[in-house]
Amino acid sequence: MRIRFWGTRGSIPVALTSFDIRDKLARALVEASGRTFANYEEAHAFAATELDFSITHTFGGHTPCVELDLGGEEYFVCDMGSGARPFGVHVLARQARRPATVNVFMSHVHWDHIMGFPFFGPAYVPGTKIRIHSCHDVCEQAFRLQQAAPCFPVDFSQLAASIEFVRLVPDQPNEISGLTVTPHLQLHSGDSYGFRFEKDGKRVVYSTDSEHKLENRAEAESFAAFFRDADVVIFDAMYALADAISVKADWGHSSNIVGVELCQMAGARHLVLFHHEPANDDATLDGLLKEARRFEELTRSGNPLKVSAAYDGLEIEP
Amino acid sequence: MAIPARSFANAVVLGVAGRLDQDNCDAFRAELMVHVERSAREGGVAILDLGGLEYVSSAGLRCFMLASRQAKSQHGRIFVAALQPMVAEIFEISHFNLVFQVFPTVREALAAASSEAAVAFDRA
Questions:
Q1: Does residue A52 fall inside a structural domain?
Q2: Mean of pLDDT values over A24-53
Q3: Domain range holding A192?
Q4: Number of domains comprising chain A
Q5: Which CATH superfamily is domain B5-123 in?
Q6: Could you tell me which of A94, A105, A106, A103 has the C-alpha nearest to residue A74?
Q7: How confident is the model at residue B1 (pLDDT cuts 50, 70, 90)?
């Protein structure tokens, strides 16, 4: 199993600005001060091995879209945020004109989680099968609504793919093309659902747009059970803890610190911070990652928990 | 959960010790709110003496946040003081150092509350 992150930002897509690029270039030049590079390869090697992540990368980017590559013919993907556009390009390239079968799992239907679907290339290819799995009864309505005039030029009914909406029941495991999928209700405006995926002894949890009420022990234990022994937990870490429980309480999101605590309770192995706040720049997100890693060190009582921050283009082998 | 309280002029120093997490935060919060509400009603300052606090989880930090909100809603003030290194680091990591005024010692927190409170502390 391989996890590919096509979209990792929350709420609305974010692009680097010219200012951001100049800033990264200037910082790289300062770091390289006094050094010479004979060619592009030497300069590239320097950038790849000696410069900080915040100089050489960006967290991006697109809104949520995360692929689980099981190595088979079918595709599995969580959410259809704006990351669905590059994911669709990937599918079309890999299929080389053969129609694809794509299994979609929708956490919920807020705009940032569906906005990529009208730009999902395979939806326009005859013979493509798209199964959209969700616990929401409004899922199909939301997909159709965003492509209705006057919001979009191509109505949903004009898409060439065969598109099926499949209703899932919370906390009930489903066997879907060899993958065991269990949805779990989360606290978010209009409800959201996390998904626990299991195959060949590997366990991946996708839990975004989920607020956790710290005073509720039963809720914490419920999520610890949902995350239990996961190899990877993709977690809504939109805010720092102080923001999440004060000015942004009841906004339906969580923090890096709560992610560490729940994963420690669950005995999970790898926490991936996800659904980044659009107002946070790369340096701020890097800071939140470092703080989460340090908190994990301070509070560790058992096996270490690996902590990463998702970025567009990240790939993880659980 | 009993919270020892000592009064110095317009300030009350509340001692917080041990571990503060999901197991005991409800009882702690109930007791803390009584002190903070009373202090704010009297126009005073509540100072959380965290010198004995060994560990605080997110649930415990939420108690401090609720206490801060309570104080602010009554136009009261709340400071924290004497954090052990690990708790101080958790405050920074969770950005609680941006929410609270943090002082190295109880004496310095009292001096920020009022000169009378600092004098009363020195005489005690």
A1: no
A2: 95
A3: 2-13+57-316
A4: 1
A5: STAS domain (3.30.750.24)
A6: A103
A7: low
What torsion, rounded to 10 degrees, do the Cα atoms A73, A78, A82, A88 define?
0
Q: Is the pTM of this model over 0.90?
A: yes
Q: Which residues of chain A neighbour B62 with C-beta distances below 8 Å?
A: 214-215, 245
Whether A60 shows a pLDDT value over 90: the answer reads no
Look at residue A75 and tell me if it is in a domain. yes
Selecting from A215, A246, A261 the residue whose C-beta is nearest the C-beta of B99 gives: A246
Closest CA to A78 of A187, A226, A202, A233: A233
Q: Do B90 and A243 touch (CB under 8 A)?
A: no
Domain CATH number, residue A194: 3.60.15.10
**Segment A276-312, tens digit of pLDDT:** 999 999 989 999 999 999 999 999 998 999 999 999 9
pLDDT in the model for residue A54: 85
* Residue A47 phi, psi (nearest 5): -65, -40
B113 to chain A, closest Cα gap in Å: 24
Contact between chains at B65 and A255 (C-beta distance less than 8 A)? no
Domain annotation covers residue A297: yes
Nearest to A298 among B58, B69, B90 (CB): B90
Q: Could B93 and A215 be called an inter-chain contact, meaning their C-beta atoms sit closer than 8 Å?
A: no
Q: With CB atoms and an 8 Å threshold, state whether A214 touches B58.
A: yes
